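Hallway conversation turned thread

IA: we were arguing at lunch whether anyone had actually written out ATP-dependent DNA helicase end to end. Turns out nobody had. So, for the record, here is the sequence (787 residues) and right after it the structure tokens. Reply here if something looks off.
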Amino acid sequence: MKHADSGSICLEIASFEPPLEPARHTVAVRALCEFTARSGDLDLRYTPAPTALEGIAGHSRVAASRGAGYEREISLQGRHGALLVRGRADGFDAARGRLEEVKTHRGSLARQNPGQRALHWAQAKVYGWLLCQARGLAQLEVALVYLDVDSGQETAFAETHTAQALRTHFEQQCQRYLHWAELEAAHRSARDAALKTLAFPHPAFRSGQRDLAAHVWRAAQAGRCLLAQAPTGIGKTAATLFGQLKAAADQRLDKLLYLTAKTSGRQMALDALALLAQGAPQADAQAAAAAPLRVLELVARDKACEHPGSACHGAACPLAAGFFDRLEGARGAALAPPAPALLTQARVREVALAHGICPYYLSQELARWADVVVGDYNYWFDTSALLHALAQQQGWRAALLVDEAHNLVERARGMYSATLSPEALRQAMRSATAAGAPRIKKALTAVRRAWLAMQREQIEDYAVLTALAPPLAAALARCTQALSEHLADEPQALDAPLLEWHFALLAFTALLEQFDAQHSLIDSQRGGQGDCSLTLRCIVPAQHLAPRWAAAHTATLFSATLKPAHYHADLLGLPQDHAAIEVAAPFAASQLAVHVARHISTRWAHRAQSVGAIAPLLAQQFAAQPGNYLAFFSSYDYLEQVAGAFATRHPEVPQWRQQRRMGEDAQRDFLARFTEGGQGIAFAVLGGAFAEGVDLPGRRLIGAFLCTLGLPQVNAVNEQVRARMQALFGRGYDYAYLYPGLHKVVQAAGRVIRSPEDRGVLHLIDDRFARAEVQALLPAWWSLPPG
């Protein structure tokens, strides 16, 4: 059947009569060839690739330049045994007997990775056989057509093959994939059977755990998004994982993605998954080995790189050389029984180094085959998110568990914001590359000139722009083009300062293309040297996140601090039909003695006076009940003032302090001082590494002092946030200040009571804690003293 499609003809082709036996496995042409036909080095040297929109436009340009009988986007499919292969060929010229596979690019093709060219040929030849089979062709000209999106130049490489040769190639690719597909199908079947009988790993649920797990299961069954507030200490990680895994088989889920904000959350998920895997009843050891739940930990590149400072290509890094040639062996070793079900960073590194390949990129390959992936938020929500991209390419039916979801608002704002720094521009202009490349120097100078002109018109230190000044917008666009073209021609020519500027410019201009003045703003802020930085600032990330929720079959966002629910639903773009629940706390008011210091103000104007009042309060509590305490402050400066005063007056009380930019080893040392029989006061920053995701049960922590409401600083930027929230939601102060601040307070206070057996004390130090509107946002089970 023919039908019009943007001025060209699109044919839907049935390749042959349906087989008597249905195919057991289905794969896209791209996925098939990415599995079977990649070879050679890993080569991730940065070259400016066309955007998705530029790629679509490039394909249309090629099709438009062909004759009237040219067919585009031809749907094809073919069988090899139990495997069904599907895809869309880019174009076919029946008059010439030529099938075209179109690829867009920038820069010289002479520098193209040979492995990439081989992959393109493999795809083209698979399409070639599918077309020969569908049309009954005896031979076919197969062409790779490369289009430079900047110059419009086409470069074609063509080969003529008999149908039999193309069929042989097709069957070889299918046979290699089919063996793996059979193994994967067996794993999937055994995995689903095990999950249907999955047992909770503890003798009994804690109070609230069963309720939370049941809600997660129901949301998965309904394919809905769930916003779940549940108190700290009930075991939210185990409950949500159990509920989601129990639904996986019935809902035919391909992947469970457990997304965290911090390293501590990732480790708790891995520990819970290890227990859950052990809790699944197995008939014998052999059955347990045959049905593993593959759990993969994803970590940041800088934590997994074995050769920091080396570029990711074969000539610079030994673990990139021959990566794809050795990938099959490493993949098999990592996933084949009786390999460990937990593919932690350490386990992936062990396998990767045994096969001489990069651990970081092996983990990214293993994400295709893992059942559960544990990693940071950015792997799904960022602009270039790996897991979201794979889900789209592979057609995954995915479930999301978003841990400590109250953090997602600020993290998402950061993902969809970008800044251009005048210092970065100056460094780029001083770079050796710019000095030797007149076109780049000219483009950078034009940006600097337009930027200075904008600054001269700015009277105040902070200004919100309705749009970029046209001369500056044009200069930035020309600079982006000049850098992209230069880098495409000479990929090794850009030094670090210029490359850093280029990346910042790409991020800024990409977000500028989708700028929405209702949910974002562009501001200019004058710095110490008088220069103004430009920031495209995301205020409400809902429009960016909504498509990510839609791409998942189900999602559960959970935290101890999701009150009020409408705040998170509004800012995170949750679907209209999402569900929201609050799990009752299993704790009694008698477990936590709550005191409100109404006589102390921790407002900025009263900080100096408050130091003299807070120190005696800390000493009085410690004297009455010696043990381990955490004292939280709004800033490092405030922390140091109080800790210093306390040390001077009470040198006999042990104390330790959080420092700026503490590494993971220093953080572990900080927490190690909270021993079961220990005594002392630790000073920390509210919202920092020790205010959430830290588990100090029993006598390891018996009390906390909250010396702040945690409200964001009142400044020009936050006042813009308040104004935008007022315009959109009618609750500017609450959305910009009150809710974010009290989320931090409740999280920090939640370190004290971790189980029904714990007992502790909490001091809320600020007169505003006595206000009704503040107390309404605190946990209902706290017994607050009357106002």
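OS: looked through it. The chain has a mean pLDDT of 91.
IA: good, adding that to the notes. The longest strand covers residues 83-93.
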